[in-house]
Amino acid sequence: MRKNKLLALAAIAGMTVSALAGCGKSSGSDTTAAAPVQNTGAQDNGAEETEKALEGSLVSAEPKEFSIFLNFNNMPFDSSWQVWQEIEKRTNISLKGTISLTNSNEEEAFNLMLSSGQLADIIGYVDASELEKLGRDGGLIPLNDLIDQYAPNIKRTMEEDDRFRQTAYSLDGNIYYIPKNQELLSAEYWWIRQDWLDKLGLEIPATVDELHDVLYAFRNQDPNGNGLKDEVPLFDRAGWKMPEEYLYLWDTSTTFYPRDGKMTFEPMEENFKIGVKGMIQWYQEGIIDPEIFTRGASGRDTLLSGDLGGCTHDWVSAGNYNTSLAEAIPGFKMVPFAPPADQNGVVKERVSRYPGAGWGISSQCEDPVTVIKFMDYFFSEEGDELVNWGIEGDTYTKNADGTKEFTDKVLNSELTPIGYLRSIGVQYRIGMCQDGEYEKAVMTEIGREASELYDSHPEWFGQDMPPYADGELTLKYSADVDAEYKNIMSSIQPYVEEKFQSWVLGVNDFDAEYDQFIEELKARGIERALEINQEAYDIYLNGAN
Ligand code: CA
């Protein structure tokens, strides 16, 4: 175990360096997709020698079209998007989406494609474990050798970025898809109404107990000044999806929770009792939004524009209200703050970003060499700029020092900046590296402050945390336990969620039900699932690839 720990720390040290290097982008002159074949080393290779150098960024001398299955955020791939038209011009490669533009159900479309037996040349999907399964079943081809021979930019990123490489490799040693990499570490931040704190003479809370006291005052001392006890101190527009962001305050969770090399299923641990009892109390005191489980995505707008909401855990966009509500609510000020320390005095942020699902090449693709060269293009400087920033001179400009800025067209369109970029095909879910600077360029000043505060504290994010996003572990499982694990959890997860809600809402009594609850978890196979996850976590810590 000690050895594992040291290896894990060594891996983390490497990770930090590569994160600073910026998604593995080389800082000097970058090669584009056309260069690789000539540069693959000293070994003579007849096939490479006969291949002619292509001009500019061309991936193919002749125009070629490939079919693609991809649907991101309910947007099926659309070849008419401006930036993909530009990509076609530069590379000679065009893509034809296979999902009807009116079909937004990704899972349904994916299952339909699989059952039809007609696979698109290129396949991307939201769930990386499904892409790996498709690879194991023969639907996606292993990309290892293709990357080695034809994709120098992807290869370099693999070498420089441990998280990217670990995400890309399946436990069977094959790479079935090119991940979408993430440059920024932080995702969500704690936000609080500074103007309410000032009004009540309170400080930013630094611990979970201080947070309780501040929120209790928000609830009971009328900081919005209307004479009504109508404040909703703690709210979350994703509470229906992830109420356990609050359990993190007590260093616990409703599910698996990797911590210092050991995997736990938190409902079976002491911390869970502390956390759930804390939430039950906060709910009874009116600190937690009474509609937490049902509020929905528009909850943040409703509560902030109504001058009702006091504190939340959310993306940088929570800072935008300082501008949009400046006139309606004089003095309105949301500020980011460090995660409150838990009952043991430890500051942690459990929500962060990881490289995620990207795209792979299907076994029915007749020209995988051209496709992998095309995929490599997005890791070259030119391709990277196109999919992060759009078109130079149109959506962004470059300053003399190399920094970039979005144009008014992006910043002041009728859509949000990200909405506009997505509407022309930028920031789609492909194998690429999401550039942190792109995101900072659309942040408000307070948003940048939040991002810089959290990104400057990598220790908050845990030293041996495996991919763990939106409350879900995305560890790698081998073929023989993958189905077994999913089967057990499909019975356990909904049961835990239902029980947890009923306790917080006061419908059922937590203390009275707890022992029976644990027995039921065991009957449903939790101990086996925990064993599978500990093995998967050990493999992760050993840095299998
Ligand atoms: Ca009030």
**C-alpha-based Rg, rounded:** 25 Å
Q: What is the average per-residue confidence, as pLDDT, rounded to a whole number?
A: 89
Helix content: 40-55%
User: Which runs of at least 5 residues are low in confidence (pLDDT < 50)?
Assistant: 1-22, 26-50
Taking the sheet with the most strands, its summary is: 6 strands, mixed
Structural class: alpha/beta
Number of strands: 18
Write the layout of secondary structure elements.
Layout: H1 2-21, H2 46-50, E1 64-69, E2 71-72, E3 75-76, H3 82-91, E4 93-97, H4 106-116, E5 122-124, H5 128-136, H6 144-150, H7 152-160, H8 162-168, E6 178-182, E7 189-193, H9 194-200, H10 208-220, E8 232-234, E9 256-259, E10 262-265, H11 270-284, H12 299-305, E11 309-314, H13 321-324, E12 334-337, E13 356-361, H14 368-377, H15 381-389, E14 396-398, E15 404-406, H16 408-411, H17 417-423, E16 432-434, H18 436-441, H19 445-455, E17 468-469, E18 472-473, H20 479-504, H21 510-523, H22 526-542
Parallel strand pairs: 1-4, 1-5, 6-16, 8-11
Antiparallel strand pairs: 2-3, 5-13, 6-13, 7-11, 7-12, 9-10, 14-15, 17-18
Helix pairs in contact: 1-22, 7-8, 20-22
Bound molecules: calcium ion.
Summarize the structure.
This protein has 545 residues and is an alpha/beta fold. The protein is 42% helix and 12% strand.
